[in-house]
Amino acid sequence: MTVSELKLWEELRSNKMGFRFKAQHPMIYYIADFYCFLLRLVIEIDGPIHEFQKEKDAIRSQKIELSGNKVIRFTNDEVLNHLNDVVNRIKEVVEKIKQQ
């Protein structure tokens, strides 16, 4: 795990969000940084390499969403420097999914 993934993992682990997330969860075509089965929610943290593969990431996110999952993406910078904002965004998404 990267430093940013470890930092976010501390916020997601042990049902702190009210739902269990798995780290480094295998999906059909790749490994998701974090996944919640009950919510069908994938959380991705994009490092510097992702600046050069935005189209590829968009296609991957689209495939995941077509399979009935929701994807949220954050950058390393967002997680490392604005963790509270990231956590609040995840909570917002979790609440929206719960209401569906």
For the secondary structure, the number of strands is: 4
Count of DSSP helices?
Answer: 4
Enumerate the spans where pLDDT stays under 50 for 5 or more consecutive residues. none
Mean pLDDT comes to 87
Strand % is 15-25%
Percent of residues in helices: 40-55%
Secondary structure topology:
Elements: H1 3-12, E1 22-26, E2 31-36, E3 41-46, H2 54-66, E4 70-75, H3 76-81, H4 83-99
Précis, in short:
This protein has helices at 3-12, 54-66, 76-81, 83-99, and strands spanning 22-26, 31-36, 41-46, 70-75. The chain is of the alpha+beta class and 100 residues long.
Give a verbal description of the structure.
The protein has 100 residues and is α+β, with helices and mostly antiparallel strands. It has a domain of 42 residues. Strands 1-2-3-4 form a four-stranded mixed β-sheet, with helices on both faces. Helix 2 links the parallel strand 3 and strand 4. The longest helix is centred in the C-terminal third of the chain and has 17 residues. The radius of gyration is 13 Å and the shape is globular. The termini are far apart. The mean pLDDT is 87.
